[in-house]
Amino acid sequence: MHTDSWTPYGIKLQSRFLLGTAGYPSPQVLADSIAASGAQVITVGLKRTMSAAGDNGFIEIIRGAMRERGARLLPNTAGCRTAREAVTLAHMARELYGTHWIKLEVVGDEHTLQPDPWGTVEAAVQLVRDGFAVFPYCTDDLVTCQRLLDAGCQVLMPWGAPIGSGQGLLNPFALRTLRARLPGVPLVVDAGIGAPSHAAQAMELGFDAVLLNSAVSQAVDPVRMARAFSLAIDAGRSAWCAGVMAPQDMAVASTPVTGQPFLIG
Question: pTM (2 decimals)?
Fold first, then answer.
Protein backbone atom coordinates (compact mmCIF):
# COMPACT_ATOMS: atom_id res chain seq x y z
CA MET A 1 0.00 0.00 0.00
CA HIS A 2 2.93 2.37 0.63
CA THR A 3 3.48 4.36 -2.54
CA ASP A 4 6.08 6.94 -1.55
CA SER A 5 8.74 7.44 1.07
CA TRP A 6 9.89 9.98 3.63
CA THR A 7 13.36 10.48 5.10
CA PRO A 8 13.78 11.29 8.80
CA TYR A 9 17.45 11.86 9.68
CA GLY A 10 18.60 10.47 6.35
CA ILE A 11 16.80 7.12 6.69
CA LYS A 12 14.40 6.31 3.86
CA LEU A 13 11.12 4.81 5.14
CA GLN A 14 8.13 3.59 3.17
CA SER A 15 5.70 3.30 6.08
CA ARG A 16 4.36 6.51 7.63
CA PHE A 17 3.00 4.68 10.67
CA LEU A 18 5.03 4.82 13.91
CA LEU A 19 3.68 2.41 16.53
CA GLY A 20 4.04 2.32 20.30
CA THR A 21 4.43 -0.87 22.33
CA ALA A 22 2.76 -0.24 25.70
CA GLY A 23 -0.44 -1.71 27.14
CA TYR A 24 -1.07 -4.66 24.82
CA PRO A 25 -3.03 -7.59 26.28
CA SER A 26 -0.27 -10.10 25.54
CA PRO A 27 3.18 -10.37 23.92
CA GLN A 28 1.67 -12.28 20.98
CA VAL A 29 -0.93 -9.57 20.33
CA LEU A 30 1.85 -7.00 20.36
CA ALA A 31 3.89 -8.99 17.84
CA ASP A 32 0.86 -9.54 15.58
CA SER A 33 -0.13 -5.86 15.82
CA ILE A 34 3.34 -4.74 14.76
CA ALA A 35 3.16 -7.07 11.76
CA ALA A 36 -0.34 -5.89 10.81
CA SER A 37 0.61 -2.23 11.09
CA GLY A 38 3.44 -2.38 8.57
CA ALA A 39 5.26 0.09 10.83
CA GLN A 40 8.96 0.59 10.24
CA VAL A 41 9.50 2.65 13.40
CA ILE A 42 8.62 1.16 16.78
CA THR A 43 8.76 3.15 20.00
CA VAL A 44 9.63 1.79 23.41
CA GLY A 45 9.85 3.50 26.80
CA LEU A 46 13.03 2.75 28.75
CA LYS A 47 11.28 3.35 32.07
CA ARG A 48 8.63 0.81 31.12
CA THR A 49 11.34 -1.69 30.15
CA MET A 50 13.23 -1.24 33.41
CA SER A 51 10.07 -1.62 35.50
CA ALA A 52 8.89 -4.83 33.77
CA ALA A 53 9.54 -7.87 35.94
CA GLY A 54 11.34 -10.32 33.66
CA ASP A 55 9.97 -8.26 30.72
CA ASN A 56 7.70 -11.17 29.64
CA GLY A 57 9.55 -11.49 26.34
CA PHE A 58 8.94 -7.83 25.56
CA ILE A 59 12.44 -6.92 24.38
CA GLU A 60 12.76 -10.00 22.21
CA ILE A 61 9.44 -9.20 20.51
CA ILE A 62 10.71 -5.75 19.64
CA ARG A 63 14.02 -7.07 18.34
CA GLY A 64 12.22 -9.77 16.37
CA ALA A 65 10.05 -7.16 14.66
CA MET A 66 13.13 -5.15 13.82
CA ARG A 67 14.80 -8.15 12.23
CA GLU A 68 11.76 -9.28 10.26
CA ARG A 69 10.68 -5.87 8.99
CA GLY A 70 13.95 -3.99 9.02
CA ALA A 71 12.25 -1.70 11.52
CA ARG A 72 13.96 1.11 13.40
CA LEU A 73 13.74 1.36 17.15
CA LEU A 74 12.81 4.74 18.64
CA PRO A 75 13.34 4.71 22.42
CA ASN A 76 11.53 7.46 24.32
CA THR A 77 12.02 9.39 27.52
CA ALA A 78 8.38 9.06 28.63
CA GLY A 79 7.87 9.88 32.28
CA CYS A 80 10.67 12.43 32.55
CA ARG A 81 9.84 15.71 34.29
CA THR A 82 13.10 17.62 33.78
CA ALA A 83 15.56 18.16 30.96
CA ARG A 84 18.35 16.61 33.02
CA GLU A 85 16.34 13.45 33.65
CA ALA A 86 15.47 13.14 29.95
CA VAL A 87 19.11 13.55 28.88
CA THR A 88 20.24 10.91 31.37
CA LEU A 89 17.57 8.46 30.21
CA ALA A 90 18.45 9.08 26.56
CA HIS A 91 22.06 8.13 27.20
CA MET A 92 20.93 4.97 28.97
CA ALA A 93 18.68 4.09 26.02
CA ARG A 94 21.55 4.57 23.56
CA GLU A 95 23.73 2.16 25.53
CA LEU A 96 20.95 -0.41 25.97
CA TYR A 97 19.49 -0.41 22.45
CA GLY A 98 22.46 0.71 20.38
CA THR A 99 20.64 3.53 18.59
CA HIS A 100 21.17 7.28 18.57
CA TRP A 101 17.51 7.89 17.73
CA ILE A 102 15.50 9.21 20.68
CA LYS A 103 11.96 10.41 21.12
CA LEU A 104 12.30 13.29 23.57
CA GLU A 105 9.54 13.79 26.13
CA VAL A 106 9.69 16.25 29.03
CA VAL A 107 6.32 16.49 30.77
CA GLY A 108 5.34 19.88 32.17
CA ASP A 109 1.83 19.26 33.51
CA GLU A 110 0.61 16.18 35.38
CA HIS A 111 -3.04 16.58 34.37
CA THR A 112 -2.67 16.99 30.62
CA LEU A 113 0.83 15.48 30.30
CA GLN A 114 1.57 18.49 28.13
CA PRO A 115 5.24 18.77 27.21
CA ASP A 116 7.30 21.44 28.93
CA PRO A 117 8.46 23.72 26.09
CA TRP A 118 11.45 25.14 27.97
CA GLY A 119 12.60 21.78 29.31
CA THR A 120 12.14 20.14 25.93
CA VAL A 121 14.23 22.78 24.14
CA GLU A 122 16.90 22.62 26.86
CA ALA A 123 17.14 18.84 26.58
CA ALA A 124 17.10 18.96 22.78
CA VAL A 125 20.08 21.34 22.70
CA GLN A 126 22.13 19.00 24.88
CA LEU A 127 21.11 15.80 23.11
CA VAL A 128 21.92 17.20 19.66
CA ARG A 129 25.35 18.17 21.01
CA ASP A 130 25.73 14.61 22.27
CA GLY A 131 25.09 13.16 18.83
CA PHE A 132 21.44 12.10 19.12
CA ALA A 133 18.85 12.24 16.36
CA VAL A 134 16.11 13.90 18.40
CA PHE A 135 12.39 13.42 17.73
CA PRO A 136 10.85 15.95 20.16
CA TYR A 137 7.28 15.50 21.39
CA CYS A 138 5.87 19.02 21.56
CA THR A 139 2.66 21.02 21.36
CA ASP A 140 1.37 22.60 18.16
CA ASP A 141 2.85 25.98 19.09
CA LEU A 142 4.75 27.37 16.10
CA VAL A 143 7.34 29.34 18.09
CA THR A 144 8.24 26.32 20.25
CA CYS A 145 8.64 24.26 17.10
CA GLN A 146 10.92 26.89 15.59
CA ARG A 147 13.07 26.90 18.74
CA LEU A 148 13.42 23.11 18.51
CA LEU A 149 14.56 23.44 14.91
CA ASP A 150 17.07 26.07 16.02
CA ALA A 151 18.32 23.56 18.61
CA GLY A 152 19.17 21.14 15.81
CA CYS A 153 16.10 18.89 15.66
CA GLN A 154 15.32 17.75 12.11
CA VAL A 155 11.92 16.20 12.90
CA LEU A 156 9.05 17.57 14.99
CA MET A 157 6.27 15.60 16.71
CA PRO A 158 3.41 17.96 17.70
CA TRP A 159 0.45 16.53 19.57
CA GLY A 160 -3.06 16.25 18.21
CA ALA A 161 -4.55 16.08 21.71
CA PRO A 162 -3.35 15.02 25.20
CA ILE A 163 -1.64 11.62 25.34
CA GLY A 164 -4.04 8.69 25.45
CA SER A 165 -7.14 10.87 25.26
CA GLY A 166 -8.31 9.62 21.85
CA GLN A 167 -9.81 13.04 21.08
CA GLY A 168 -8.25 13.38 17.66
CA LEU A 169 -6.98 16.67 16.23
CA LEU A 170 -8.28 19.37 18.58
CA ASN A 171 -6.66 22.26 16.74
CA PRO A 172 -6.46 21.58 13.00
CA PHE A 173 -5.78 25.28 12.40
CA ALA A 174 -2.54 25.17 14.42
CA LEU A 175 -1.44 21.96 12.71
CA ARG A 176 -2.24 23.41 9.29
CA THR A 177 -0.19 26.49 10.20
CA LEU A 178 2.79 24.32 11.17
CA ARG A 179 2.63 22.54 7.84
CA ALA A 180 2.43 25.83 5.94
CA ARG A 181 5.20 27.59 7.87
CA LEU A 182 7.59 24.61 8.02
CA PRO A 183 7.22 23.15 4.52
CA GLY A 184 10.48 21.22 4.42
CA VAL A 185 10.41 19.77 7.93
CA PRO A 186 9.23 16.18 8.58
CA LEU A 187 6.20 16.54 10.86
CA VAL A 188 4.65 13.65 12.79
CA VAL A 189 1.36 13.95 14.67
CA ASP A 190 2.00 12.29 18.02
CA ALA A 191 -0.56 11.73 20.80
CA GLY A 192 -4.33 12.03 21.09
CA ILE A 193 -5.33 10.03 18.03
CA GLY A 194 -8.15 7.60 18.80
CA ALA A 195 -9.60 6.46 15.47
CA PRO A 196 -8.30 5.75 11.97
CA SER A 197 -10.25 8.78 10.72
CA HIS A 198 -8.11 11.01 12.96
CA ALA A 199 -4.95 9.59 11.39
CA ALA A 200 -6.35 10.09 7.89
CA GLN A 201 -7.17 13.72 8.76
CA ALA A 202 -3.58 14.33 9.93
CA MET A 203 -2.23 12.95 6.67
CA GLU A 204 -4.71 14.98 4.62
CA LEU A 205 -3.26 18.09 6.30
CA GLY A 206 0.09 17.19 4.78
CA PHE A 207 1.81 15.66 7.78
CA ASP A 208 4.52 13.15 7.01
CA ALA A 209 3.57 10.44 9.49
CA VAL A 210 1.50 9.52 12.54
CA LEU A 211 2.63 8.02 15.84
CA LEU A 212 0.14 6.34 18.16
CA ASN A 213 -0.12 3.60 20.74
CA SER A 214 -3.28 3.48 22.87
CA ALA A 215 -5.68 3.56 19.92
CA VAL A 216 -4.30 0.17 18.87
CA SER A 217 -3.31 -1.43 22.18
CA GLN A 218 -6.64 -0.56 23.86
CA ALA A 219 -8.85 -1.63 20.94
CA VAL A 220 -11.09 -4.67 21.28
CA ASP A 221 -9.08 -6.25 18.44
CA PRO A 222 -5.64 -4.56 18.39
CA VAL A 223 -4.37 -6.51 15.39
CA ARG A 224 -7.32 -5.55 13.22
CA MET A 225 -7.13 -1.96 14.45
CA ALA A 226 -3.44 -1.79 13.54
CA ARG A 227 -4.35 -2.79 10.00
CA ALA A 228 -7.17 -0.24 9.93
CA PHE A 229 -4.77 2.55 10.90
CA SER A 230 -2.29 1.46 8.25
CA LEU A 231 -4.97 1.71 5.58
CA ALA A 232 -6.22 5.08 6.88
CA ILE A 233 -2.72 6.56 6.90
CA ASP A 234 -2.13 5.41 3.34
CA ALA A 235 -5.51 6.81 2.26
CA GLY A 236 -4.85 10.17 3.90
CA ARG A 237 -1.43 10.42 2.29
CA SER A 238 -2.89 9.57 -1.13
CA ALA A 239 -5.55 12.24 -0.64
CA TRP A 240 -2.92 14.87 0.19
CA CYS A 241 -0.85 13.94 -2.86
CA ALA A 242 -3.95 13.95 -5.09
CA GLY A 243 -5.08 17.37 -3.87
CA VAL A 244 -8.20 17.60 -1.73
CA MET A 245 -10.85 19.90 -3.22
CA ALA A 246 -11.32 23.28 -1.57
CA PRO A 247 -14.47 23.64 0.58
CA GLN A 248 -17.15 26.01 -0.72
CA ASP A 249 -19.48 28.36 1.14
CA MET A 250 -22.47 27.33 -0.95
CA ALA A 251 -23.75 24.48 -3.06
CA VAL A 252 -22.01 23.92 -6.38
CA ALA A 253 -23.74 21.60 -8.83
CA SER A 254 -21.55 18.63 -9.68
CA THR A 255 -23.39 18.06 -12.96
CA PRO A 256 -23.60 21.11 -15.24
CA VAL A 257 -26.93 21.81 -16.92
CA THR A 258 -25.34 23.82 -19.74
CA GLY A 259 -22.09 23.73 -21.65
CA GLN A 260 -19.76 20.75 -21.88
CA PRO A 261 -19.81 17.80 -19.44
CA PHE A 262 -15.99 17.79 -19.41
CA LEU A 263 -13.39 20.52 -19.28
CA ILE A 264 -11.72 20.71 -22.69
CA GLY A 265 -8.17 22.04 -22.57
Answer: 0.89
